[in-house]
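We modelled each protein-ligand pair independently. The example shown here corresponds to the calcium ion entry; the chain sequence is given first, followed by the ligand as SMILES.
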Amino acid sequence: MKKIFYSIMALAIAAMTFQSCEDVPMPYDMPEEKPTEPETPEGVAEGDGTLANPFNAYAAIQYTSALDADVNSTEEIYIKGKIVSIEEEYTTNFGNGSYTISEDGTDKNTFKVWRALYLGNKKFTSADEQVKVGDDVIVCGKVVNYKGNTPETVQGSAYLYSLNGKTGSTETPVEGEAKGTGTKDDPFNSVAANKEASKLDANAKSEQSYYIKGKVVSVKEQFGTQYGNASFYISDDGTEAGQFYAYRILYLGNQKYTAGELLNIGDEVVIYGKLTNYYGNTPETAQGEAYLYSLNGKTEPTGGDNTGGDNTGGGDNTGGSTTPDEGSLLSNGGFESWTGGLPDNWKSTSSASSATLSQSTDAHGGSYSVCVKTGDKYNKRIAYKETELKAGTYVFTFYAKATTSETCQVRPGYVPVEGGSVGTYVYGGYPSITTGWTLVTYEFTLEKDATICLVVMNPKGSSYATAQDVLIDDAKLVKK
Ligand SMILES: [Ca+2]
């Protein structure tokens, strides 16, 4: 009689469980499934739910059963156990899996892991190892007492922390799903491009060029005839989620823009070029080494007649034999890369840049230096683009050269930039510059993290110096 009673109870619980899952797709057949038995007396709760001391399945059941029905736990807990059964294998489609665990792999005191992400709190990919019955796992996430009778992990808020002792990689998770291999036939999406660029060392460039496809999210700098390039963000669906920064890229045909259709938000584009990991925290295209391969399916400018078609070899002409950027926080400190008549990166968004710049073939290193024009009666500045720096002491060095036999001076410094506006300029001394290349060294300390523009002032004439154009080359910024 007692046995029959328990069987009826079991059926009743099974029926309840069945109902409780009605509003989610049924992943498996229920009839063979034994109901969970949260009240089984012989269980022993172990652990405190931390990574150092994870709950066993029984402790997780107790913890979760104490929650109000359908209220997610505020804390993420770690639960350790062996897989008893697999209700949904991990799939690349949804990237998650559902399985039941217990302390010893038997069906006593089982805890349900419901649609949990894979190792590293990421979606499962085809390269990942499938889970099996008997696997030792630690699961991390929020839990819920579903309908007040089914303790389980919260869908989308839990993941497989370790599988048979192996944990996920420590790479920073990139938002969204990476797709594509970067070839013409299988271009990267924005997430894959971000991922690939994130693998690079700070300011390093990828060796090969990639195709990246997406929709225009926003346009930071539109194509124009002055510089011939554009900067914009792309993503899979045209929203900011997982967007990738196409930085100063050339137009269709790997050429400077002269005429043709401009970018519009939502346009479908394919870009081609090298990647960089700017300062180790901003994946983007390597400037001057990427171009717009196609715009809404067209690879030639509308009405254009001189397009490069399939000349996808772009990007290998990185002139310059010296590498002043090695170990430096600056990129193009040697003034070897130029776009639209301006040295790449040496232009601030704020008003820090004030001098007229031109290319000079009188170089300290490589082929070029920058000529900072005099303002005669006004101080003029060349500024490096807005840069986020951590608190600390920095050393800014560069070579400077006068363009006349008269004595001249330069003045190194920086200015904090907040909300696009410059603060108070901070300067070093006025070293005298002659017609030989002179090394200028300027040390400064930031008390807190700040966005700044490095500047070199070409001062107006004074009793000490004659106002004149000055050449600058091989600039470096290093943290002490
Ligand atoms: Ca140079």
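The chain has three domains: 57-167, 190-295, 338-479.
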